[in-house]
Amino acid sequence: MVDKKLFENTEIAFKLKSDSQLDRAYFLFKMIANEPLVRIGTAATNFALKAHLPIEGLIRATVFDHFCGGVSEEDCLDVIDKMYEAKVSSVLDYSVEGKEIESHFDDAAQKIIKIIRFCEEREAMPIVVFKPTGFGRFYLFQKKGEGKPFTEEEQKEWDRIVQRYHDVCSLAKQKDVEVLIDGEESWMQDAADELAEEMMKTYNTDIPIVYNTLQTYRHDRLEFLKASHKRAKEQGFKLGYKIVRGAYMEKERERAEEKGYESPICKDKATTDANFNDCLTYILHHIDDISVFIGTHNEISNYIAMELMETLNIDIKDNRVWFGQLYGMSDNISFNLAAKGYNVAKYLPFGPVKDVMPYLIRRAEENTSVAGQTSRELTLIKKERQRRKNA
Q1: What pLDDT, in 10s, does the model give residues 241-261?
Q2: What is the pLDDT at residue 364?
Q3: Are 63 and 359 within 8 A, CB to CB?
Q4: C-alpha distances out from residue 334 to 16, 20, 26, 315, 369, Å
Q5: Quick one: how far is CA 184 from the chain centroid?
Q6: How far is residue 192's CA from residue 201's CA, in Å, rounded to a whole number?
């Protein structure tokens, strides 16, 4: 039987946090709970960084250290080792965004290759991740997905993107490191999906190495999943999918309204939740063909996954099922699942403080906009602070 109070155990959830780190977390989530303050803080931080004001130390000591592992792979090692002592693995996420030139795309691919080699000797790091637009221009993915012909130069550029994918995925297969390919906006995702499937067809012939992402706030993703499953069965390869709810909802709706097409986003949160759980259920019922990385901070979805594993006799250590949350969030889920023996990994962002700011701003905005997320974090932190006072 699945313990429905598993995620209430704050002693296990916050075991790695000192009293001062717990106080900092409380302060941060109190700030994030204030939407106007987040907006003002975001604008002020962007201004200060652009003006080269000396605030990196302050950012590093507060929001950066809470949500990020460090400025480099080596800088993350202390966090990686500590989490692994609590049986939680790490997915190093090089969270530098917004680059648009070829040398930056080459650098990003080389960074992932370096991380794969870094992972090789460390059991604590079985998975790497990258974004499609980290390896090539958004415009090219969009144009390819729309079926528009490339110019000769664009075709060469696209070929380089494909080669970067192969360079990463072939090394990952050689080193037995799994690769998660993040999802992005719907109007570039068709080409990204095709390319991810091409990688799966090449490298997932025996066990899944390459995982694409299903953003289940899109109402078409269950049908997409079933269609890709059919192709994989016919063509003899395994699927890997990271399932998430999604990260670009406002942008998606605004563009659909502006351009006059039906929004790809589910009509409400309840429909998104149902879609996520339906995709999860479909995958776990076809675990021999599809491996899954369950990326969610939603407690109900995690309980559903645990119950399905029990019902379907899927061993909790089966490498085809991983649970994942972001570093600095939902420790009550991650560490309690790991303590029970499930496969758990935290996304561990890293990179230079200035370059990681767009990621950190998104985290703050996400926590502000997701109903209940911040209040849940605060409730649990308060509970643990009280428990320690009484201990």
Answers
A1: 999 998 888 889 999 999 999
A2: 67
A3: no
A4: 12, 21, 18, 18, 22
A5: 11
A6: 14
Q: Nearest 5°: CA angle at 213, between 139 and 128? A: 95
**DSSP per-residue string spanning 127-172:** EEEE-GGGSS-HHHHHHHHTTPPPPHHHHHHHHHHHHHHHHHHHHH
Q: According to the 3-state scheme, what is the secondary structure of 30-46?
A: HHHCCHHHHHHHHHHHH
C-beta of residue 214 within 8 angstroms of C-beta of residue 221: yes
Is pTM beyond 0.90 here?
yes
239-244/210-215 β-pairing = parallel
CB of 46 closer than 8 Å to CB of 55: no
Count the Cβ atoms, other than its own, within 10 Å of residue 300: 11
| Residues 371, 375, 380, 381, CA torsion sign | positive
Structure tokens at 313: 């006799």
* AA identity, residue 94: Y
